[in-house]
Structures are given as structure tokens and as C-alpha cells.
Amino acid sequence: LSIDPSPYFKGKNDEINLAPYPEEWEMYSAKLKTYLLSKIAIKNEGKKLDIQFKELEILPLTKTLYIVYHFNLQPIDEIPESLDIEYNVLFDKVDFHRGLTIIAHNWKAGIINNESMSSLIFSPSETTQTLSLTDSSMWSGFKALIKLGMWHIYIGIDHIFFLLALLLPAVILRRRRDERLNIQPAEKFSTSLWYILKIVTLFTIAHSITLSLAALGIIHLESRIVESIIALSIGLAALHNIFPIVNKGESVITFLFGLFHGMGFASVLGEKGIEGEYLAASLLGFNIGVEIGQLLIVCAIFPILFILRKRPIYKKILFYGSIFLIVASLYWFVERFFDINFLLDDYIGKAINKIFKVIGLK
Predict the structure, then answer these.
(1) Is pTM beyond 0.85 here?
(2) Buried (b) or exposed (e) across 127-162, using 16+ Cβ within 10 A?
(3) Are 84 and 38 in contact (CB under 8 A)?
(4) Ordered per-residue pLDDT tens for the chain, 362 residues
(5) Cα separation of 302 and 184, whole Å?
(6) Which of 95, 197, 216, 231 is most enclosed, with most CB atoms within 10 A?
């Protein structure tokens, strides 16, 4: 079911206007129920429970509309110790889809008014999981948010490209604006390591600040503007690698644009409906996942660059790699700012998904 939500949003804060109620969506209701029943199974002690759907509801989140079906499970006389859940919704259509299970109320586990801490996250490689209804620990949800943060880095090609733009010059000495052609390899591994640790730390601090402020609702920018600035950040960081924009300005560029990347991360939490009582724990878990993902990328690329830093090929990698990032930046900026879909992202996503399958990350 494809729905264009734009006619229902209005105002500076993207308030949603659902009056009159979109009755035309009801025509899809029966097909949606049939589809969901074919893709979801909930079992108690090996016995499949009957899913009895109730009313349809429209849930607006971050300029996105979700169709919500409430349901009862029968027959259940009392809350069981656990439920086995099989979830295969959309995995055959959208490989990057992730399904979240959230326990909102469970007196037995001491959980009240929880709309933020995920208990399970389903993926194409994890379609069957057990949901404990007696464990009141936050650990399972915390681990789920860590995995979500890591996954967002791996599918967030723009964030990876920004990190790559920062990594490319990590093995040379810092340059001034009048030293554009003077590329001097760093002699010590510790010098380069200190540089990239400082840069990654600044990026972490910056996006943690705005991720928290945006998730708390203290700051708000239209997602189109945020995503467009994120796209530009890649190009400016890459351009700085070729023609230093600010004297030794890597730290300034990293921190400034890291703030906007944080707002981009916040949109992910908003779309998942993660807010409320466990927001702090959710933010921490998601942030840790993002950092683990970043560090794994650094560990994979940085040693190679350090080995190549004194060889002629490194200058070519720095120059042509930065040119590639500038082109990608402009492509994404035009696509996002003018709301145009050039379809290239779809092909890239499919290619990345194939790579994940090969290396076992899916």
C-alpha cells in the first residue's frame, strides 16, 4: 500500500490534518489484514494464537503516516511467561525494513506506559524470536537499540561518506590554505591515530548534542533541510581535502556538520516512535550502536590508508576519492532539496544488501 502523506501535513511543525478521515484507505483494509496474517504468527508454548483485528488507526510520525491495526490474541486466559513471534512483513519487498516489538503495558513485568524501549527487532536473518513477558530488565531493549544504531550507520550511505571524507586525509599532516599542494605523510602511526580519534570524538559529541535535543523536541528543522545540509557536508568536507577551506579547519567542519547529522539520526528515532519514559536509555543505546558502527568503519579503512600514505597511489586516492564524494554530495543535495527521486539510491541499496548477505551482516 503506497500512500502520499503530503496532503495531510500543514504548518511549520508538520502538524497533520486528518479531517476529513481518509475513508478511501478503508478499501485496502481487508487485503492488509490478509497480508499481515500471512506474515505474522504468535505462538504460546508452540500453539499458534488467533489474531483478532480491531479498529484501524492512522499514526503520524515525523511527516510519515503509519496504518495501525489493534488486535487481540485468543485464546489467552492469563499472561504467559513468553511468546514466540514470527515476523516476515515486507522482508521480501524491502530488505532494509526492520520490525520492532514494544511492550507498552505489562503489569507482570512492571512495565507501564512504555512507548520507547524496543524489546525485539526483527530482520531478514532474525524472523523468529521469543518475547519474554516476565523480564522487567531494560537490557533486552537496550541491546535492540544498539543494533538499530549500528544498522542505521551501515545503511546510511551519506553518513558513511561523510566519515570517509574525514578519514581520507587522516594520514597526512594538517595543511593551511596556502599549502594546498603540499601533502606530507605523517611519520608516526600515533600522530594519525590521534587525529582520527579527535575527529571521531568531535563528530560523536556534535551529533549526540543535536540527537538528544531533537529527540526531546527542543529543536526542530524540516527533514528536507536537514538531509540537504547533510548531503552538502560530504561535499564540503571532501573539497577541504583538496583545497583547504579553513586553516586546519577539519575540527570546525566536523563539529559543525556533525550537529546536522545528529538531527538526521533523530528522525530515525522519531519514525520508530521512540520517545517518552525510556528516551534517555534509548538515546544512549542508539548512540552506542552508531559509534560502534563508525569505529568498525575506521578500523577497516584507516590501517590501509596509513600503509599507502607514502606511495604515489595515495595522492590519487585522496584526490579522486574526494572528487567522487563531491559529486555524490551534489547528487544527493539536488535530489533531497528539490524532492526528486533519481532512483540511483534504490540500486545502491540493493547492491549494499547483496554485500551484507555475502558477509553475513543482514
Answers:
(1) no
(2) eebebbbebeebeebbbbbbbbbbbbbbbbbbbbbb
(3) no
(4) 444 555 554 444 444 555 444 566 777 788 888 999 999 999 998 899 999 988 777 776 655 677 788 888 888 777 788 899 999 998 888 777 888 887 766 645 555 446 556 778 898 888 999 988 776 556 766 777 788 788 888 778 888 999 999 999 989 876 565 555 567 888 888 888 888 888 888 998 998 899 888 877 788 888 889 999 999 999 999 998 888 877 667 888 899 999 998 888 877 666 555 555 567 777 888 888 888 989 999 999 999 999 999 999 999 999 999 999 999 999 999 988 988 877 676 666 666 666 656 655 55
(5) 17
(6) 231
292 close to 150: Cβ distance less than 8 angstroms: yes
Contact 169, 318 (CB under 8 A): yes
Contact yes or no for 117/102 (Cβ under 8 A): yes
Instruction: Report the distance separating Cα 337 and Cα 11, nearest Å.
Output: 18
Report the distance separating Cα 315 and Cα 304, nearest Å: 14
Q: From CA 331, how far away is CA 344, in angstroms rounded? A: 10
* Whether the Cβ atoms of residue 319 and residue 239 lie closer than 8 Å to each other: no
Give the Å distances, CA to CA, from 66 to 56, 124, 138, 175. Answer: 10, 21, 26, 49
Is the peptide bond prior to 75 cis by the omega test (within 30 degrees of 0)?
Answer: yes
Buried b (16+ CB within 10 A) or exposed e, 279-312: bebbbbbbbbbbbebbeebbeebbeebbebbeee
Q: How far apart are CA 258 and CA 243, in angstroms?
A: 21
Nearest-5° Cα angle at 27, 9 to 98? 60
The residues that bridge with 69 in the sheet, in sequence order, are 56
